[in-house]
Amino acid sequence: MATSPRAVGIYCRLSYALDGSLEKVERQEGDCRQLGDRLAWPISEQHIFLDNSRSAWQRKRKRPAWDRMLLAIEAGEIDALI
Hints:
Layout: E1 8-13, E2 15-16, E3 22-23, H1 25-39, E4 43-51, H2 64-74, E5 80-81
Parallel strand pairs: 1-4, 1-5
Antiparallel strand pairs: 2-3
């Protein structure tokens, strides 16, 4: 039997949808929160990571929220991510 996570983080960044439109981080965060609600996963409000205007298509672009998210995972502060 699978166990539920103890603390869940959310990561959002600027991305392109299949239809070519931009998916804003605010919409992504809302979608992630809805998924968390459906799964009954406890969202950790201290672990909402938003990289607005930080598309990942440029390899050398810095994404500070991504880096903070990785540190939180490594430190065991969150054990699941949406």
